[in-house]
Specification:
two-stranded antiparallel sheet, about 65% helix
Length: about 300
């Protein structure tokens, strides 16, 4: 192993370890003293049990702490890349939290928010979508590169932030997707993955969820990390993100997962059994009787839109 590779491994280890510890610490502190009071962050899930949205801010804070720890390990972590990922995570978390706390969920998906704008209604989801787009531009500019690269990277950051949020409809699902996408580039994604994995048990146990704040932040940071890839790879990646996002307006990801045995097994891994009153029902029946059977919450995000049946 070369000295440079060794330094990169040390930086990644420091990032992941610090991020995990900081996320747990932030979650504990926020749970003890929730900003605005406990009711601000609690929602009721499909079991009639309370679930906290504080996981999202804790994951974002932990990931940023991990990035700073990696930067402190030496020049192997480039400051522009660190700044870009931190800005992406902080900005996406802020706009996501705004939609988590102020959004009503009555308008869903790009079509819903654009339709509202045509009628003169500015939804919290529209504000979030526009804000995360701006965050993507700022983050990409911090990473540097030609105008074409900045535009491409901005699309990756904003697109990944929105796409990962579309998977935050069942306990643990968004984190599992993030890990699957981030592990191949673990040296660059150790901080966000470490923070998310540190709180995976809370998510799977339906005690807390990422919400828009966490899912948007996690996706944005993975998108920012992808800016280091060669341009052809980034173009392919952005095309895939755009295709999946467009498909989400027509196809329910949950329906696809539930019809695919391997995906369904992975999706259920570590989760609590379904409530007895939902066992044995078809997906359509479950959603008819329980329209809020999402990722343990009644909250629905700006970018989340799965047509029929709805996931939350």
């Amino acid at each position: 192993m070369t000295p440079s590779a060794g330094r990169r491994l040390i930086a990644a280890g420091a990032a992941g370890t610090t991020a995990a510890g900081a996320a747990r610490l932030a979650y504990s502190a926020l749970t003890r003293r929730p900003p605005g009071g406990p009711k601000t962050w609690w929602r009721t899930n499909h079991r009639g049990e309370p679930v906290s949205l504080l996981e999202g801010p804790a994951v974002a804070a932990g990931a940023i702490a991990g990035l700073l720890a990696a930067q402190a390990c030496g020049p192997s972590a480039r400051w522009p890349s660190t700044a870009a990922m931190a800005a992406a995570g902080a900005g996406a978390a802020a706009f996501g939290a705004y939609d988590d706390l102020a959004g009503s969920g009555h308008r869903r998906g790009f079509r819903g928010h654009l339709g509202a704008l045509r009628h003169g209604e500015v939804t919290t989801g529209a504000v979030k979508l526009g804000g995360i787009g701006a965050v993507g531009i700022v983050s990409a500019a911090l990473a540097g590169g030609s105008p074409a690269d900045v535009a491409l990277n901005a699309g990756l950051i904003a697109g990944a932030a929105n796409l990962l949020n579309l998977f935050d409809l069942r306990p643990g699902r968004a984190i599992k997707v993030a890990v699957a996408c981030g592990v191949p580039g673990a040296l660059a994604t150790a901080a966000p993955l470490g923070a998310a994995l540190a709180l995976l048990a809370e998510d799977l146990g339906e005690r807390a969820m990422l919400g828009d704040a966490g899912a948007n932040a996690l996706g944005a940071m993975l998108g920012a990390a992808a800016s280091a890839l060669p341009r052809p790879a980034r173009i392919v990646l952005l095309t895939g993100i755009a295709g999946l996002t467009a498909a989400s307006e027509k196809v329910s990801f949950t329906e696809v997962i539930e019809r695919t045995p391997a995906l369904r097994k992975l999706d259920m891994l570590g989760r609590r059994p379904r409530p007895a009153n939902l066992a044995g029902m078809t997906s359509a029946q479950r959603h008819h009787d329980d329209p809020f059977a999402g990722a343990g919450t009644m909250v629905r995000s700006a970018g989340q839109s799965e047509p029929t049946p709805p996931d939350a």
